[in-house]
Amino acid sequence: MVPNLASASSNALNGATKVSANANATFAQAHVINGANATVANTSYSISDTAAAFTAYQGTGSHTAATYRHASSVIVTGEITHTQATSLLTEGSSNNASVTLGTVTGNAAQTSALTLGTNDSISELKVAGNTSVPQAKLIAARATTYSYALVDDVADLVGAGTSILNAATSITSSDRVTLEQSRTLDAATSSDANTVFEITDTASNVLSATAAELARGNTNNNTINLLDTSLSASVVTQLRAKDAANNPVEGVGGFLINTNAVSSPKLLIINLPKEFIFNL
After folding, report:
1. Per-residue pLDDT averaged across 67-77, rounded?
2. Measuring CA to CA, which residue among 190, 192, 150 is closest to residue 174?
3. Contact criterion met (CB below 8 Å) for 25 and 34
4. Using an 8 Å Cβ cutoff, are 161 and 139 in contact?
């Protein structure tokens, strides 16, 4: 029995040529067992304990990594930091022991760099701060479940894949998105309020889009940026009508239609009931 081994006298343990625990030990119990004089080859035990107990053990003056390095397997339930996880995973790899961790926390760089052995596993990774798509893919390969705030350019976001997007608690595009790209981002499970982008597209695509799609741009009074360098009178009339019909009342949803000022040397700003900008 593990309690019997852990409470045995030093003389009793040190006199044994072989020490084997027939049940899982806590970190504190494993420390005692590992301290016996029997060789590592003749000492056999596994560890199963809580994150709190592991943290407490690390805080003792007698803490030694050899305690879990020599275990045949290590299971930690609860939440530990990436630093603690790295310690367990690194030591576990020295004898190919299986290391099973509950929840591991850290930022994107830290969690995406965790090294797992063949027999190691992490149930959940909780990522603090922003995560890029490449980092999210590395994180996804290291845990069963994971969550993060995804921030990247639209090309990487759209190409990330459904599972990567759906694991995000929020999605933010660092550059403008087309309506087609916005639909991909909006299809993810993150709420509309937590899916942030600014829309830019052609007049044709803007006119064929629904008001709800156009109102999905960044902030309540978002601006829809047009890519066209020239617009016909007919298209201008249609845009003006769509703009006027959906201009937000202050503080409410809607959108404003705007041209891309960089794409044309001549712009005319016409003050309508709501400001509307277009190229001549």
Report:
1. 89
2. 150
3. no
4. no
Task: Using alpha carbons, select from 254, 177, 155 the residue that is nearest to residue 210.
Answer: 254
Whether the Cβ atoms of residue 42 and residue 18 lie closer than 8 Å to each other: yes
Long-range contacts of 229-236 (CB under 8 A, 24+ apart): 229/263, 229/264, 229/279, 230/264, 230/279, 230/280, 231/203, 231/259, 231/278, 231/279, 235/203, 235/204, 235/207, 236/278
Q: How far apart are CA 158 and CA 165, in angstroms?
A: 9
Average pLDDT over every residue of 21-43: 72
Dihedral sign (CA 5, 10, 15, 18): positive
263 vs 279: CA distance, rounded Å = 10
One-letter amino acid identity for 101?
L
Going by C-alpha positions, the residue among 106, 252, 131, 256 that lies closest to residue 190 is: 131
**8 A C-beta contact, residue 109 and residue 87:** no
Amino acid making up residue 250: E
pLDDT single digits (tens) 239-256: 888 877 776 555 455 677
Q: Which residue has the higher pLDDT, 229 or 207?
A: 207
